[in-house]
């Protein structure tokens, strides 16, 4: 969560506050540049820009994350970063006499700002991207705020997450977990879930979340199909694991009433007895780091592997689709056992160094209102069922002093009357987003501060930059404006598209590409209007959406 600085407590919020932060960041970049090859001390930059120490440090940290600033580890002086070099060459190619013809080398504009070298190649330190770099920059920053059903809040800092996950990685390595191994995580929302995920990624493994309401049969199927190497769970949830399980089990202490688990490794005791693992595994950009399964209702649940290259699309959606700003308090209410919660409630905040908010127990409207007011949530995303629960529980009530400025909904199109009700109650626009487990979110209704009211057309919105979305007729031809057909992604023109195949069903993979590998087919029908908006018209098949339950 963000902390107010002494010179920003009275700063305006919303678009003007964001503009002020941008202006200050640009002032810092110019100040760093003015000191040339010698670099600039923090004191120099404070003097040059008239910013407080806290504000200057916060902005420099953000600029360093984006590679616009480098800090020499020995001299502690700040220098311009490598990202400015590539942007500068692109700008020079445009503005020098002779234009592009005079440009040295093949500098080209990327179709999305987030196709960075960090997410490409064959030596990507995933645990560093998702945790350790944030711990180095601001270790005290909260990686997690966990709210119990009783209203008690506990905090896990990035520094503590780095230390504990390094210790737990040693525990998992001792159980035989290594590169490429899948580890099943059957845990409620809490600190142990984050620690387990980071530990798996330190080893180069594949994090496989299991939704806590799965039946024992659903758990057994996924364990067998994935060939999971180990399981992390609790005593209560261990009842869902097959009795003939031969995999090592790590069990979180605390609910021994459901069985001591004499054959299980105790999570916290083993963690604290282990020395932190010093090394971090490297991934290639197409290596899987998570494995998501489709709904329990599927006749044959499909395994969807999330590759490291998908981080670019996750960042694109967090920053553009959700309009997530530096001063936002962000809460993704989706369970991390489902794709939307895993992609944008777990991985996304870790990637950006933001605070994840977890709330225990099944969804409760009063608890939801308490969370919104207690933490001052400004950017909220949730499932349609949660909006319906608000409406059913208290059609016109709720607190009237929420800090919300934007509310996004993913899962299914909402009827206009429910959108209108939500707009009246929370006094912010309610924006539909669209995507699937196989793609992440790739269509959005983006928040426009100049037109804060929700558009009346109830469309799915427009493609997220980095995707080209088309409507295909039954013969696989792109339909004209107004023509109905199946929503598809033009793979060749979509640099953020990452899905390749299901982990366990070549036939269903072929159905997704039945017109050839050029187009990925969603299974949903829609039409494209003259303004580029896509309007949902129904299911063409058993499309697998981002979230099918809460």
UniProtKB/TrEMBL annotation:
Superkingdom per UniProt: Bacteria
Protein's UniProt keywords contain Ligase: yes
Keywords: ATP-binding, Ligase, Nucleotide-binding, Plasmid
A biological process from GO: acyl-CoA metabolic process
HTH iclR-type domain: residues covered: 19-82
GO molecular function list: ATP binding; DNA binding; fatty acid ligase activity; fatty-acyl-CoA synthase activity
Key word Nucleotide-binding present: yes
InterPro entries linked: AMP-dep_synth/lig_dom, ANL_N_sf, Mitochondrial_ACSM, Tscrpt_reg_IclR_N, WH-like_DNA-bd_sf, WH_DNA-bd_sf
Pfam families: AMP-binding, HTH_IclR
SMART domains (UniProt xref): HTH_ICLR (SM00346)
PANTHER family in the cross-refs: ACYL-COA SYNTHETASE MEDIUM CHAIN FAMILY MEMBER 3 (PTHR43605:SF10), ACYL-COENZYME A SYNTHETASE (PTHR43605)
Family from the record: Belongs to the ATP-dependent AMP-binding enzyme family.
Name of the protein this chain belongs to: AMP-binding protein
């Amino acid at each position: 969560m963000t902390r107010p600085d002494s010179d920003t407590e009275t700063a305006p919020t919303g678009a003007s506050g964001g503009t002020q932060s941008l202006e200050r960041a640009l002032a810092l970049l110019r100040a760093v540049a003015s000191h040339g090859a010698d670099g600039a001390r923090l004191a120099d930059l404070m003097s040059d820009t008239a910013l407080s120490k806290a504000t200057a440090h916060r902005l420099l940290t953000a600029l360093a994350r984006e590679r616009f600033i480098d800090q020499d580890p020995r001299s502690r002086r700040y220098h311009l970063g490598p990202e400015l070099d590539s942007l500068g060459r692109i700008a020079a190619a445009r503005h020098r006499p002779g234009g592009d013809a005079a440009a040295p080398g093949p500098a080209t504009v990327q179709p999305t700002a987030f196709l960075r070298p960090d997410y490409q190649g064959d030596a990507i330190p995933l645990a560093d991207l998702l945790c350790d770099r944030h711990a180095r920059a601001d270790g005290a920053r909260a990686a997690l705020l966990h709210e119990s059903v009783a209203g008690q809040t506990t905090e896990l800092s990035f520094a503590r997450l780095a230390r504990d996950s390094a210790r737990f990685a040693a525990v998992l390595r001792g159980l035989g977990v290594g590169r490429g191994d899948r580890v099943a995580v059957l845990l409620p929302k809490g600190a142990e879930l984050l620690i387990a995920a980071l530990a798996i990624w330190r080893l180069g493994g594949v994090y496989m979340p299991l939704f806590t309401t799965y039946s024992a049969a659903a758990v057994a199927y996924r364990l067998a199909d994935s060939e999971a190497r180990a399981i992390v769970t609790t005593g209560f949830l261990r009842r869902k694991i097959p009795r003939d399980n031969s995999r090592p089990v790590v069990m979180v202490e605390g609910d021994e009433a459901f069985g001591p688990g004499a054959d299980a490794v105790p999570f916290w005791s083993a963690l604290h007895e282990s020395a932190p693992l010093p090394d971090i595994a490297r991934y290639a950009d197409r290596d899987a780091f998570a494995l998501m399964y489709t709904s329990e209702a599927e006749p044959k649940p499909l395994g969807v592997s999330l590759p490291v290259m998908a981080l670019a699309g996750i960042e694109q959606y967090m920053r553009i689709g959700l309009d997530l700003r530096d001063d936002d308090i962000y809460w993704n209410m989706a369970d991390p056992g489902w794709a939307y919660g895993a992609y944008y409630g777990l991985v996304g905040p870790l990637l950006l160094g933001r605070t994840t908010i977890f709330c225990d127990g099944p969804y409760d409207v009063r608890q939801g209102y308490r969370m919104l007011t207690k933490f001052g949530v400004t950017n909220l995303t949730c499932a349609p069922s949660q909006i319906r629960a608000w409406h059913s529980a208290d059609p016109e009530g709720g607190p009237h002093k929420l800090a919300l400025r934007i509310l996004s909904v993913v899962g299914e199109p909402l009827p206009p009357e429910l959108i209108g009700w939500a707009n009246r109650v929370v006094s912010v626009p309610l924006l539909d987003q669209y995507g699937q487990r196989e793609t992440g979110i790739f269509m959005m209704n983006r928040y426009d501060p100049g037109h804060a009211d929700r558009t009346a057309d109830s469309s799915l919105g427009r493609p997220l930059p980095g995707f080209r979305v088309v409507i295909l007729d039954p013969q696989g031809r792109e339909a004209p404006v107004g023509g109905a057909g199946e929503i598809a992604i033009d793979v060749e023109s979509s640099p953020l598209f990452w899905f390749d195949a299901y982990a366990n069903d070549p036939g269903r993979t072929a159905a997704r590409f039945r017109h050839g590998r050029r187009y990925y087919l969603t299974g949903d029908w829609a039409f494209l209007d003259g303004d580029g908006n896509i309007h949902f018209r129904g299911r063409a098949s058993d499309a697998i959406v981002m979230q099918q339950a809460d």
